[in-house]
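Hi support team,

I've been running sequence recovery on a batch of backbones for a student project. Most finish fine, but this one hangs at about 90% for roughly twenty minutes before it completes. I'm not sure whether the input is malformed or the queue is just slow. I've pasted the structure tokens below so you can try to reproduce it. Let me know if you need the job ID as well.

Thanks,
M.K.
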């Protein structure tokens, strides 16, 4: 008997050792979200073909989630907020919904509006999985860029507005009488650019002629008895596109500007913007903000979606965590760190990339005058005769490489600057004259990924060669990390005439020391108090820096991630607000200690 117990004990110990030695990576996600974005029907008359996802309306209904997106000809369903499956509805708007709004009323009915014409019926269903919707008999006006909100007492409100002149408005509807208007209509809020720097129009909040930003994307969240009226500014194509809020005691106001605005803001890093979104509550009580991010490569209206964890502090201030918001983040079901950075760093930045062929390589950026700066890169080869691409590891989603074909002879090889343990990949495909102009079935991305420590012996770690998944921003976490210095993408088939990518991003943990703490961090607020300049000493080995700031030392809710440089200029501050700043350096090996907080009056 004693021997039997010994065998059981030894077996348990051995099993424990095996389990702990084979570390399984927790569920994660990344921004932009990895979903099968729809090709846009507008701009098709100009033969401009691109995918886009914008203006999300996300709701929880009977323990599951539904996401409605501008002009997608349907919507997505999820049980975990990470894996989304497209639903093609039985009845829908001819050009897809535009700036949609959806509301779950007491877990009994989902109401929806978003007719691109700006008027139409409000639809409803008690079974959104089926795709069957019923229209109300009334026709409502001004439902574009709108938000439908039904309070606990059944009173119904429609908020709307999209203008650089006119304010957001609200009108009351009768939910029990075909959503007819009751006659109660009110002007609510407008932009105040002379006080709020982040509301100024343009890339980095600068434009040489236009000063008025666009106010749009009304949204309403009720929390702890308060009403948070949210709005987006200054323009969807810009890196500074953001969401802010006014807070009131009733759905009709009066509303007061929230002093930590904008509460959803991501101006730096690989993918920018965090505006025109919606704040929703997960079944476990965690809030999330789904937002629109600017891609703006084929068109200014080429966009993607993001999801950030959202909180309310002890003052009732709503804020999101967008720090390292386009790096891998813990999934919504993580017990303590949902939506927070995993600590996996970017291993591929400035890696030496070579490609099988090259039809073109374009470096592109949004300029301050609302157009593009475009540079076609010359063909370069290395000493081995391989074509060089400097755009696939430059952390710019607008720049792209186009192969000469779309077949299994196309490949990309990246030699990272240093080896590391790889935890995940993100493949950002580009649409180059793909000739697709609407929701299309049967699209798929087929490829394999290999890794190597020496560039000679290769190991296949991802095999999607027979996949039916359409993944224009494919995010692929590995079950277990793998050590490598080289990564190779092998194409099989992707949508479009040519294989094209903007970026291959490799995430993990380097083997070196994390960067040292930044020294001599100086902040100078300008004569225009909406502006501030920053300088600091470069940190050896740092890829970049993350500036954090907020309205109090314990409220550094906002951040701006930048690469390479050791100075910065921002135009997004509120004129009459005192701020506190700190900065940290980061590299493939980790994140440095933050500097002492600097108070700037």
């Amino acid at each position: 008997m004693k021997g039997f117990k010994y065998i059981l004990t030894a077996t348990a110990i051995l099993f424990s050792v095996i389990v702990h030695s084979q570390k399984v990576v927790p569920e994660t996600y990344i921004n932009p979200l990895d979903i099968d974005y729809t090709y846009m029907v507008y701009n098709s008359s100009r033969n401009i073909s691109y995918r886009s996802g914008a203006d999300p309306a996300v709701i929880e209904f009977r323990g599951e989630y539904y996401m409605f997106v501008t002009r997608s000809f349907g919507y997505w369903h999820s049980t975990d907020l990470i894996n989304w499956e497209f639903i093609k509805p039985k009845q829908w708007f001819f050009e897809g919904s535009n700036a949609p709004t959806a509301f779950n009323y007491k877990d009994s009915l989902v109401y929806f509006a978003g007719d691109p014409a700006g008027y139409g019926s409000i639809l409803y269903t008690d079974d959104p999985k089926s795709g069957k919707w019923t229209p109300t008999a009334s026709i409502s006006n001004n439902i574009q860029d709108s938000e439908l909100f039904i309070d606990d007492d059944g009173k119904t409100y429609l908020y709307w507005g999209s203008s650089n002149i006119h304010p957001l408005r609200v009108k009351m509807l009768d939910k029990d009488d075909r959503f007819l208007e009751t006659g109660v209509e009110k002007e609510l809020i407008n932009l105040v650019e002379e006080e709020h720097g982040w509301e100024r129009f343009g890339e980095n909040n600068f434009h040489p002629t236009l000063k008025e930003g666009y106010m749009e994307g009304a949204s309403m969240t009720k929390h702890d008895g308060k009403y948070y009226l949210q709005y987006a500014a200054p323009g969807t194509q810009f890196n500074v596109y953001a969401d802010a809020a006014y807070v009131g005691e009733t759905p009709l106001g009066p509303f007061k500007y929230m002093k930590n605005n904008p509460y959803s803001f991501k101006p730096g890093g690989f993918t920018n913007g965090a505006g025109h979104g919606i704040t929703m509550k997960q079944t476990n009580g965690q809030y999330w903000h789904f937002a629109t991010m600017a891609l703006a490569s084929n068109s200014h209206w080429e966009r993607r979606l993001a999801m950030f964890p959202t909180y309310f502090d002890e003052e009732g201030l709503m804020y999101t965590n967008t720090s390292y918001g386009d790096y891998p983040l813990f999934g919504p079901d993580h017990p303590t760190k949902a939506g927070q950075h995993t600590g996996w760093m970017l291993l591929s930045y400035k890696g030496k990339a070579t490609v099988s062929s090259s039809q073109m390589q374009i470096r592109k950026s949004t300029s301050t005058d609302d157009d593009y700066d475009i540079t076609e890169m010359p063909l370069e080869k290395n000493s081995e005769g391989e074509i060089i691409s400097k755009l696939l590891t430059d952390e710019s989603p607008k720049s792209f490489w186009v192969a000469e074909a779309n077949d299994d002879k196309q490949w990309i090889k990246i030699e990272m600057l240093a080896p590391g343990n790889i935890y995940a990949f993100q493949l950002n495909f580009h649409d180059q004259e793909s000739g697709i102009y609407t929701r299309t079935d049967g699209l798929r991305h087929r490829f394999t990924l290999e890794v190597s420590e020496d560039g000679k012996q290769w190991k296949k770690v991802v095999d999607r060669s027979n996949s039916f998944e359409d993944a224009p921003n494919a995010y692929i976490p590995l079950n277990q990390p793998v050590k490598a210095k080289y990564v190779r993408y092998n194409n099989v088939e992707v949508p479009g005439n040519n294989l094209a990518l903007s970026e291959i991003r490799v995430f993990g943990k380097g083997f070196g020391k994390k960067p040292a703490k930044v020294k001599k961090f100086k902040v100078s607020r300008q004569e225009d108090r909406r502006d501030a300049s920053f300088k600091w000493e470069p940190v050896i080995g740092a890829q970049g820096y993350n500036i954090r700031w907020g309205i109090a030392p314990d409220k550094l809710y906002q951040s701006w991630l930048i690469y390479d440089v050791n100075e910065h200029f921002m135009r997004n501050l509120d004129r009459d607000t005192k701020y506190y700043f700190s900065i940290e350096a980061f590299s493939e090996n980790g994140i440095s200690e933050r500097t002492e907080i600097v108070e700037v009056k």
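--
Follow-up from support: It reproduced on our side and the slowdown came from queue contention, not your input. Residues 418 and 485 are 6 Å apart (CA to CA). No action needed from you.
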